[in-house]
Each structure stands twice: as C-alpha cells, then as structure tokens.
Records
---
Amino acid sequence: MTQATAASSEHTQMNTAKADSPASGLAPTAKTATELPKEVLVKWLYDMQLIREFENRTMQAYQQAKIGGFCHIYTGQEAVAVGTIGCTNSDDPVITAYRDHGHALARGMSPESCMAEMFGKTTGCAKGKGGSMHMFDRPNWLFGGHGIVSAQTPMGAGFAFSEKYQLEVMGIGKKKVTLCYMGDGALDQGCFHEAQNLASLWDLPVIYILENNGYSMGTAINRHTANSENLIDRAKGYGIKAAKIDGLDIMNIYNEFKPIVDECRETSRPAFIDLKTYRYQGHSMSDPQKYRTKEEVDTYKDKDSIAKLCSDLMHMGHIDEAGWKSMRKVISDIVRASVEHAENAPIPEAGELYTDVYANPQKNLSPTATYTHGTKNPLM
Ligand SMILES: Cc1ncc(C[n+]2csc(CCOP(=O)(O)OP(=O)(O)O)c2C)c(N)n1
Ligand SMILES: [Mg+2]
C-alpha cells in the first residue's frame, strides 16, 4: 500500500458514510447544521482543507512551470463550493466557471485526476486536454469548468431543462436541482439575463450561485455593475426567488441554502443566491494585485472559513487539536502524492489532438446513441 492509499483509507475510516451523509448520495438533512451527524461536519472540514492544500501545491507547481496556461486559485472561497455542494444529492448537475478546482474536489474528483489535468497529462479528468479551467467529471455530475465569462449560465438552464424534460415528458429520472456557479463578472453579460428569463418562464430547477468575491479581474464590483449592493432585486425582476448569504461560514451556508435547494427541487422554480466571499490570491497566477490593499486581504483572512469551522467543531467536541493535526497530515500526503502522480503520468500522444473533438462523430449515428470516449473523428 502506498503512502497515499494508506492515507486515503485512513480518511475513509475517519469519515465512514452514514445514512444522510453526502457519501450516501443524498444531501444530509437536518434543521440546522449543528444537528448534522459529526461525520458530515468533519467531512466538510476535510474537503475545505483538501482544497486549501491542493491550491498551495498548485501554486508551487505553476511557479515551477509544471502547469501552463491560465490558472485561477480558489483559496478563501472553500466554504462556498463545499457548503453548497454539501446541500445537494450526488447526481444533481453542477456547472461552474474557470475557478473550478474547488468544485471538482468538493464533487468528489480525485486529487490525482485534477492535478494531472493541470499538468496536461493523460490521467487527467479530460485526458490533459482541458487544463485548469476545464474540470469535467461525468460520473460526479460536474459539467465544467468554462473559460468564457457567463457561458455556463445558459448551460445551467439547459441542464435543468434536460432533467425536467426527462422527468415530465419522457417519464424517466427524478427531481433534480442544477447548481450553476458564476463570478460577479458574469452578472454583466447579456446571456445571464436571457438564461434567467427562460429559467423563470419555463419553471427550471436551477440555482444560480453568485460567488461574489468582490472583483472581476482587477475591477471592484461597484465599478463594474450597477446597484451592486442590491443584486437580488435583479433576479426578483424575473420573478426568481433570491437571497443574500454570508459565504464565509459554512454552517450558515447550510442553514440558509439547504431550504432553498429543497424548495427548488420540490417546486421546480429557479433561485439566485448572492454569496459574499473573498479570494486570497490574485485573479490568476499572473496578477500584481494593485487594485486592493494588503489590509483588505488581511481583514478577510481574519474571518477565514476553515479556521471558523475548525473552531466550531472543537467547541462541539467533534475534533480536537490532535485530530486536526492528523487530518492535515493525511491531506498533505494525499496532495503531495497527487503531484508525484501528475509528474510521472504520460503526456498525450500527438494523435489525441484528433480525438474527442465532436460528441458524435460517426456518420448516421443516432443522436441519442452513447458516445465512446476516445472515438476518432472519421473526417480527420
Ligand atoms: C466573455 C468574456 N469576456 C472577458 C473575459 C476575460 N476574463 C476572464 S476572467 C474575467 C473576470 C471575471 O471575474 P468574475 O466573474 O468575478 O470571476 P472571478 O475571477 O472573480 O472568480 C474576465 C473579464 C472572458 N474570459 N470572457
Ligand atoms: Mg469575482
């Protein structure tokens, strides 16, 4: 058994799935987060720390030029991905923008697969052809990772439409909620308004989660969008239920977001959530950050979501100093192993440029037929 597998089996034992825990496939259910099983709460801490450590190693690897292209770090925003995904069933569709490593890990992608994707290696989730901005994980219902600002918002409505159509017209499937994440920059794109219009008109069960980290690249939100203190009124203009939630406290996210998910699943009505959060790093790995002060960043670091959850769990007696230390060691070993894995994994053959280009490349193939991963485009 390698160090990493030993560490991961230790983690599995530590967080053995119980009914009502995320690992059972169903969102955990309790009136308030403090009433959730200890295993669920400890797993949140684990997942948030996994993302934090993963991003530390990502930055190192990027600085060593082992990762190329654009790379956007999720540090500071961990409570959003872990808390909101923690309110969903494991087969609810999730789609997001390019700051996507946290969502991929929170959805259950293995750190090896995520890291290898960034290294451009064949064992990455998209065979190394997508990179940092395009994390896809079909078995875990994660549909990207999208680099064009707001491009995912109409697709979010599309996933909700597809699931609803299957249930109500084809008589298959079940009630699902689509989570569509977006940055504050996406608020200003026309397609988001079109998506909200159709989501409301057609009763689509999609929740738009605004990860409001205050900046679109180097432009502060009050300089790029109108009435930025009152964004929920816009959604209300489309008849969409909207709420503003503090995104730095994961317990609070559960308490306020879980009822919205339940209502969306039940009523098939869309929702819009303005989740206030903050990114500790620059917009991407090449950002001198002249648009904000160190003091501002420190103010948010003082309210760090991982430190907050850890302290809450210690007060509740769910974890102690020794447990927290050993959890961090387990995670550190797993992430280090993921970097080693990515370094040693093969790079794609040149011929891979011609595979996976079209979803359905075979002539006369039924549009509903299953696509075979790796199928070569016969025209090339
Ligand atoms: C349509 C489009 N316009 C411009 C860009 C360039 N661009 C990349 S990221 C970005 C800022 C987006 O910020 P935000 O949506 O707040 O997300 P965050 O980086 O804060 O997560 C811009 C303008 C783009 N990718 N797509
Ligand atoms: Mg932003």
Note: The chain has a mean pLDDT of 91.
---
Amino acid sequence: MKPGIVGWLDGKLVDWRLISVSPLSHSFNRASAVFEVMSVVSTPGGPAVFCLEEHLQRFLSSASQAFMKIPFTAEVIRRAVIETSHANGLKSGIVKCYAYHPDIDVGPATPETTTVAVFCLDFSALGIPHDKYAHPIRLGVSSLRKLHPQTAAVHAKITGNYANGFLARMEARGRGYDEALMLDLDGFVAEAPTANIFLASSGVVVTPPDECVLPGITRKVVMDVLGDMGVQVRKQPIRVEDLGSFDEGFLSGTLRHVQPLAQIEDCVFACPGPITASLLDRMQEVYEGTAERYRHLLTYLS
Ligand SMILES: Cc1ncc(COP(=O)(O)O)c(C=O)c1O
C-alpha cells in the first residue's frame, strides 16, 4: 500500500518511504507520539478537509498533554496538510499528522527533538470503497475497561493510549463482532476504540459524558445537527444493563462519519432507526457542503 506519493517531513515534501522511525526511538519504545486523522471529503466544490481547524487544535493540545513541544505553528501544519493533499492529488481519503520523538531512547532521559510528519491516504488509490463504514456494525462489550483519566491523558491522541482499544477490538473480533464497546472503570458505557457512541430511546439521544472518552470532533457536529433536527440530545452516564432499553444507535468518528449500530451483544436495534436515518441524510449535506450552517467546517483544497 502506498500512502500517497509524498509526505511532509519537518517542513519539506519528501518521498513518503523516506519517512521512517527507528525501533530504538523514544516514540516507538514509549508510545509517546501524538497524532491526528482528518477526513478529506469529496464535494461538488471539489475535495475538502473536514474540520481542519478543530483537528489542528486537538493535535496541539495532545502534544501539550504529552509534554511535547511542537517546533511548528498551527499555521505551518495547516499549510502542510493542504500542501501534502495537493501534492498527492487527494480526492477523498484521510490525512494523518504525527509528532514524535525520533531520538534513541536511553532510559530516563527526556526526549529532546520532535519531528512532525504528514501523510495522505487516498481511498480510491488504495481500493478502499467510499462507503466502507456505511454498513451496520455489531459491537461486543470488551472485558478490557477503557483507560481511566487518572491513569492516562484520555482526551489526547497519544499513541500509548491506543493499545487499550486495539486489544479490546481484537478480543471483540475474536468473539465474532465487528468492533468493541468499552466500558469505563465503573462499568458505564464509554466508547468504541476509535469512535464515540450514541444511543436513542423514545426520541431522546444520549452519549456518555466527556470524562472517560475522547470528545470527538464528529460527535460535536452530530450533537449540533441533532439539535437542528429538533432531537433532544444529552450527555449522560449509560449503564451497560440498560443497553437493551434503546431503540437505535450509531457510532461517530472521523473515518466512519456516522455508522448505524445493528447490535451490541444480544441487544438488536432498528438499523438504521428513524433518527439515525435522518441524521445520515443531514450529515451527508454537512460533508457535501450543502448545509450552509456547517460550510465553514470545510477547507476546500481547490
Ligand atoms: C478514542 C477515540 N474516540 C473517539 C474518536 C472519534 O473522534 P473524532 O470524531 O474526532 O474522529 C476517536 C477518533 O479520533 C478516538 O480515537
């Protein structure tokens, strides 16, 4: 697989194969890299990065929570995302930004250098269907609990946090599910490894509070759009025992956008349920740039 043709490395466009990290590096050993994934959507006005500013802010915030000094301003990284997308002729896909410590890890030393790299993955060039995440998804409740805010910076996209979700996902797949649903340490519903969850009953939509989850950028847009639709939506703790009382649900995330939930363990949902179906239509307008109120979320590449 070829992640585009060129990547951006510390200020220069280079052949992406030249961007490599040693297994001896601090970030490989301590999982100290931070990253961000942005969606490039195809719109009638040409390809556009969705929520570029929000992703840049979270990238910088993740770095600060990882005690990492990024040697570039948000504006430079912003231009890097656009320049790399252009250089690769990206039509629809994702842009991944990383900041990592390439120095050899020698025990307790504080890492001194930070490198920033940007890559593009074009869905059509990689043969990934545009509707890869449109199908309904089945979740298995993981035996592994979500990292707790007192043990990790759960609001940051630090690579070390992601072993937790990866193990949960592998366990769920081993049990025949598509994806994991993780609970927090108190047994309340938290999130999927890389997506937020929403559940609805009697016309009201709920999503877990921010404390133990990554407050997703898509989640915020979804909450605003549900509000526009006149649907009541609130953040509240969800007990795993109550999962069967919901009529429908969906996951939200940069890659999946909105993905309807077919089932969690043996609770089967209307799929897509009426709220999810309307939301999918409204979100389509948001991603296409035809919903005026959300147009500012698109940064057009052409
Ligand atoms: C742990 C986690 N939760 C939720 C999400 C969804 O967030 P977003 O909508 O910003 O992609 C992600 C993806 O970044 C994630 O890594």
Note: The chain has two domains: 6-122, 137-288.
